[in-house]
Amino acid sequence: QVQLVESGGGLVQPGGSLRLSCAASGSIFSINTMGWYRRAPGKQRELVAVITTGGITNYADSVKGRFTISRDNAKNTVYLQMNSLKPEDTAVYYCNADIRTSRDYRNYWGQGTQVTVSS
């Protein structure tokens, strides 16, 4: 059984910073692309940032220059450093990963962590 567990969300003032973490656990053979998505109230889930095993990254235009995605392959963990946060960054943030186990190769989602940017 594979699980993705996020942590690090919370309430922060505009201009502040947060760091999200997502650890994958279970009978994992390998992990390919990992990423972060978010769903704001009343909106569809959207891509925030993704990172390949080799470290190639891609960001949504709205977060470029403010957010940084990174990963520790030895720990099966992906991070999202969020700086200069804005109220419009308020959303539930979801971790996502393509994972190979002994049974299959498929996409997994975490349960989500709330990020609220408000004064």
Describe the protein.
By secondary structure, the chain is mostly beta strands. The protein has no helices and eleven strands. The N and C termini lie far apart (40 Å). It is elongated. Strands 2, 4, 5, 6, 9, 10 and 11 form a seven-stranded mixed β-sheet that branches. Strands 1-3-8-7 form a four-stranded antiparallel β-sheet, with no helix packed on it.
* Helix fraction bin: under 10%
Please identify the structural class as seen in this structure.
mainly beta
Please give the alpha-carbon distance between the first and last residues.
40 Å
The arrangement of helices and strands along the chain is: EEEEEEEEEEE
Backbone CA Rg: 14 Å
Keywords:
mainly beta, 59% strand, 119 residues, 4-stranded antiparallel beta sheet, 0% helix, single chain
List the helices and strands and how they pair.
Layout: E1 3-7, E2 10-12, E3 18-25, E4 28-39, E5 46-51, E6 57-59, E7 67-72, E8 77-82, E9 91-101, E10 105-109, E11 113-117
Parallel strand pairs: 2-11
Antiparallel strand pairs: 1-3, 3-8, 4-5, 4-9, 5-6, 7-8, 9-10, 9-11
